[in-house]
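User: Quick sanity check before I run a bigger batch. Here is a single chain. Can you write out its predicted 3D structure?
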Amino acid sequence: MAYEYTKIADLAAYRKPAPHLYGKIVFLAKYGEQDLLLLRDETGSIFVFVTPIESGEPLRFEMNQIVRIHRAMVKRLPLKNVDAQVGKMGCSIVVWPPNGCQGKPSSVSSKTWTRSEGDQDRINELSALKWGSGTKMTTADEMADYMIEKKDTKKIRDTVDKIWAETHARFQMQLAKKTRGLFWTPQGAEVKAPQLEYEIVKSFFHPTQMTFKSFFQLVIVCPKCSEKKKVIKYTENGKAKWCPTCKESIQLVVGMRVPVDVLPNYTIVLTIPVKTIQTDALESCENDVIECFDRTADRETFGRVKKFQRSLQTFLNGCTLKNIEGIVVTKSVPLKTCIIYVNDCLISFE
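Assistant: Done. Predicted structure follows.
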């Protein structure tokens, strides 16, 4: 069986199926019961937390070894990293010597491991990889340098936790400063936030907390109000055909109400058109959603809409929203609430 391996820079958090990857060990330490590895390839670096299998032989790691991981779980903490729980969900690891020339690997987590010509080519490429060749310093590399400076491997877990906490705190401070500015943006103003990055609040993915009307939103797209006056209106009338303000003919667009994680006691809700996410069921389900707002939908139609809602929630689970462009629909400084209709955004899983 031929496996497809993902370069480190292309690893995306929380995506399924879990990816396979190769890397060269450029830093290692003990992190409690886990092994903490910094793996590098031609594109970047990433930390890997290896949890050994309880009943198996312990894996032995050394500097400059070549590591192959199958079915790795990529996470964010807030720094992107890999959680390799050996034996769980098919995760397996093979470790080759630094020169990569020997036929037998240094350590394996499974008795049924394989190696193809493609594997040998990848091993040879990473064996020849030198520090700084084709890669740039990353936050992961900076963390490793900081830990090396401390020279106290007994406190490596505290050091890692501290650095992650500091990294997360700096990110949150920058995000908070830029986010507050949104609440002073006037209604109808255009929003362009290329430097803002938001995670979706966890309640969005809860199967019972997000009802049909709390998840979906009907948006009135009026050529005169939306494009010329930059005014966006919402409605719950699925039969609406005319703009309530200028009486122009309108189009109804189905959006999702996506609450994002911002400052404590602040609320930002992004209305994202479902057209942003391409799925096979999109065209029929958009009409079904409008029919449900009409209250004319039968049980079968409503069932399709709920299934569509769950598929959207599943797709967005684990993503971050970046490069947000849209229009402020309404905002309240006293209530610390801002609702933005999103014309464009980047849905990222990194």
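The CA atoms of residues 237 and 289 lie 11 Å apart.

User: Great, the batch can go ahead then.
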